[in-house]
## 1
Amino acid sequence: MEQILIVDDEAAICASLECGLEDDYEVFIANRPREVYEHIKHNHIRVIILDLKLGQYNGMDVLRDIKKKHREIEVIVITAFSSIDTTIKAIKSGAYYYVSKPIDIYKLKKLVHKAIEHQKLNNEIVCLNEQLEQGYSLGGIIGKSKELKKVFELINKVKDIDCNVLVTGESGTGKELVAKAIHYLGNRSKEHLEIINCAAIPPNLLESELFGYVKGAFTGAAQEKLGKFEIAHKGTIFLDEIGEMDIQLQSKLLRVLQEKQVTRLGSNKQRKIDVRIIAATNRNLEEEILKKNFREDLFYRLNVIQMKIPSLRERKEDIPLLIGYFIRKYSKQYNKTIKEIDRNVLKFLECYDYKGNIRELENIIERLVILCDGFKISYKDIPIDMRYGDTQESLDATQVEIHIGESLKEAESKIIENTLKGNQGNKRLTAAILGISERKLYYKIKEYNIKI
């Protein structure tokens, strides 16, 4: 849960704001500047909600001091005495936004969410290495391959056009990053981006999440709730795993896309919405249409622009860039000082078959960073199961019987043969593991008459 800090000298206001925000965030309270810095020191504060009147202290001075020492923290300023002058001063001093009392807690929640999204985006940009600064990144998507450059070009073409986009590709290829890039690089960037995973929410709950409901709409609806479409008004909604959506709910979604209006559950009142739709799926929707699992008319509504994201296997040349980026990211996160990666490890990672795509590569690098004891990631840091797979046959290949008196050639032949078996005959990967060239491996296979 993200951590936020409320700074106000009035206990009643602090309690009220804490009550309104504590369901979504871990909330800390400070009444004096000294307490602010203690909380920042001992917690990972994302956003500070700061009153400009703090008794004998000047909140504007506190704001300037926070932004001077902790530029990464977003500050939302609140005050009962708003003026154009004060607003301009606060924004120029680094405030993310300015809110006048009395405070609308719903609007404040929305602001906090946007501030955190803004902060995350800035952190991603800060983490990019020198190569990425040379033009190998767009909106947090990293790569220089021909396949990815096509994606970059398409993002730039559609980011300012209010057409629906369907993002397709295998799981873990970065479809959500593409949606974020389109939103944050486009003309709706100052408005809200709502992300919802259609596969993660049961159909009966997904409907209320998307369209909202009024008080008493169903048992347990104690108060009205805005749906994602209304929250994303003027902004963007990203419907991830759209292929998993229930067929009946697809009909209601189609109606919303056609009429650009939503009706909350339990209400007859239609509300106009202006929302850009980006949908994503790892399924073949045309096949799902033939199986009667997906509506053809909804497919054509969503598929105005289709953006296919290549798998990591199709963009191997991007792997070194991604490895460098993730090493920097996790070195910073785990307070490590890793400056180098062994050449054989890099070769191994370039040859590896990433079924989980970038998500799997990121997970591997995070693990290697954690396991690394020094300044350099070495081959011993790669877990055995990753080197040889998780099948019993592959794990058996990690053990070779070598007897005293055997020649070095016999021992070498066994090691090469078992390593090849463990890698299902992948010569490039085997060569990387053994620390020899592919050419030399081919020579050894021929020399020892190894059958694969």
Note: The longest helix spans residues 105-127.
## 2
Amino acid sequence: MNLDLQSVIDQMDDFSLRGIPYFFLIDYEMLKPVIFSLDEIPEDIWIETPLYATQHPSLDIDHQITLKPNPITLAEYQQGFEKILSGIRYGNSYLTNLTYATELLDFDSSLSDVFSLAKARFKLKYRDEFVVFSPEPFVMIDHDDSISTYPMKGTRRADSIMDGKHLLDDKKEQAEHATIVDLMRNDLSQVARSVKVEDYRYFELIKSEASELFQTSSKITGILTDTYRKKYGSLISTLLPAGSISGAPKGKTVEMIRAAESGPRGYYTGIFGIYDGHQLQSSVLIRYLEKRDGSYYFRSGGGITSQSTCEAEYQELIQKIYVPIH
């Protein structure tokens, strides 16, 4: 059902307290949240997560997904980049995520095709509006009240194993990752005790038809405080927007994003999740392909710091336009 944010938070709290399984979806601006009990999910919402999957058609796809990006120009990107960099130099932010939509030319597949072919831990096709194949968890809550989050920050093409080493050694990437880990550790401390960084800056390999990427993440864990036990709507709302796709500090950074980007993000970089009656898993809505007015757009971006260069960040935006196949 479509409700205002507070109503969705209250419904999540109520379902969680009563052990009723549910699906939730919250957009970045938190204006169009959605919640359904798992036995009432509409047929045009497809979900695949480690915790739960809907019964949806099994498509026999005999073609590859070909993406022909038509990105904004470097000059257009630079306008937003300079606005962000100015705010950083002024001291309003240490790290800001700048994102844009890239039109896909001659796209001859469907959202259902992409959902079926993409390989990712968290997949969602929402009606005929968008499909997401996200590698990034947001928060996970186990039945023993342990909570974990996995901020993902740092990407590089994986043309050789040395690219992984270069990613780990890159000073800008080190600083960017440390900033987000610190932010997410502080965020988690609002709802949990005994918060610690359990695994710092490990990297994974993500494959697509066009290229391979190294991606770095960290694992942060804690134990829920009594205030947030089984009140998962209140907990989630306290942590939004996700730090890995906004920046630090959040307040001023979100203002900078609004001023620099070309329009609202909508569901892109929001979150979705599943509560199965015992545990909750959620994911950040990145690696996101949307259908708008008959055309298709891929949303992507990256973190800007004082050490960023416009050309490198522009190339990262383009590198992230892919559908993972392994």
Note: DSSP finds eight helices and 17 strands in the chain.
## 3
Amino acid sequence: MRYGTALRDEIALPGTTPLIGIYDMYSASLAARHYNGFFVSGFGFAASYYGLPDIGFVAWPDMVGFLERLRPAFPDHHLLVDIDDGYVDHEVACHVVRRLEHAGASGVILEDQKRPRRCGHADGKAVLPLDEYLTKLELVLNARDDLVVVARTDATEEKEILRRAEALAETAADVVLVDGVRSTGLIREVRAVLGNKPLLFNQIAGGKSPRLSLGELTGLGVDVAIYSTPCLFAAHQAIDRALAELKAEDGRLPSIATAGGVGVEVSTRLLERNLGGHRPAPHEVPA
């Protein structure tokens, strides 16, 4: 299957395509009940796999290994992968792109940040000289076969954001992302300079960007929306609450009814659907 083509076709449809941030196989199994597209978030992967913040610790073999587990379990899902700056080196970036495409990725996001990197919604970001980034981007584009490539800028000054967005629109990148954009007005300005190039918007709870519905994003001309952390932050809150309640009950587990009906049987049925590549249909709830 040509996963890049499938994602391009989805992006070309009317409306804004949502891709849900997942960080491990369990979160992906739950997300698959509701959405047909995943975003393999660098923030979530760094947190879950290493227990570290999203400041450049992800190693490319670990990300490739995750995709090699993810794709067989979810053969029909769009899988967009965050590869940060391509793991620094141009040749490494091209090698990783080839490996991810071979593993079944639908697309990658390549940013223009300078090391030490930061989460796109954090303060203190610095970007590479534009020409240096464009050289890396062109090499990555030449290294892919069918893979969707999202060109991302982390520029923070409005004039520089628009200059870079316009330059990225002139490349062969499939989609452009301005990360950490702070207003709907700036989204409109970016949309205007991109022309017909698809625009991606990144939403993260507590981030720099406004909270917008898919309908609002469609009205702004946004083609793709990635939701980096809803699964991770929901798990954070739920685990913390569950353990606080367990401590308060002197170690007595709650009843299944109190736990929202989730126990060993429901969890096992969810995971059994990953055997042989079967996935639950959107909105399907385990019986």
Note: The chain has eleven helices and eight strands.
## 4
Amino acid sequence: MSNADRNATAVSAAEAKALFAPLIAASAAIIAVSGGPDSTALLVLAARWRHARKHGPKLIAVTVDHGLRPEAASEARAVAKLATSLGVAHRILRWTGEKPKAGLQEAARDARYRLLARAAQRAGAAHVLTAHTLDDQAETILFRLARGSGMVGLKGMARDRVLTSTVSIMRPLLDIPKARLVATVARAGLAVVDDPSNHNPRFARTRLRGIVPLLAAEGLSSERVVLLAKRLARADAAIEQMVDAAEAVSEQGGAMAQSSYPDEVALRLLGRAIARQGDGSPVELAKLEALWDALRSPEGARRRTLAGAMITADRRAITVEPAPPRRSAHATKALTTGRRSRAGSSKSR
């Protein structure tokens, strides 16, 4: 633990008032609480904020038991007891069914959000509050950087994100270091859960978390990483405005001029056109970049397909339209068999 972590201060009531201000007019809100220090601090801060107000949303804490550890059930009951003592309703939801051997953390996260969204819909709540911290944001950015994300991915997690048509994720603690939440829980005299999966080197995030202190020692602290993400978000917003304007011009002309825009603007414009004309599947950045390079190369293909769209390029412009439907494997086999049969008949003649 660094000196900064040891000297971290608890989150004050005044800070909490600002953090939860967007919820003032809400009728209800779900708080995702695992029992760890971050989510326990979120629960405590939200409960204190609500009790200090005459009017406000009904708070419902939800703990998801993933069924991955035998201790999880008792930990969920402990969270329920704490929530009740704070005057907050509590629900325990369980992820049932067979668990995948690969991509377990991702599958567990998807299941958790699915269950949380369902709980919000039943409660008439438009928001699910999660306890993601500044440290989580930095880890996410580094994780995405290691996997080749572009500017959009390196902006990190959004403070608010749409989960379903009626429910959004809200991350009120995203600018607060984890150490301050640990201090908040310690000041309240509460015990918390230490999930062993957070220390399991089997998971990439755990391994990445282990090198964060080394990066910080070289000046690349979590705060610096998050600052970079904010600057990228600012640049991304400016580029998106340019793409909006370029898209309006392209729609009028029906095609995108080959050399009218800077590469980044043209690349995003092409990606939007593919998303609109294609089959709705995600347009991966690396594949989009490879397509863009191929279309501009003198030796490159003049026509290619990507994500259900057909992209045609000539010297002046690029046109994007829906790709023709693919033949099924059965139809292709029948066509090939028919050709062979006709070839055999002509030989016999």
Note: Residues 3-224 form a domain with the Rossmann fold fold (CATH 3.40.50.620).
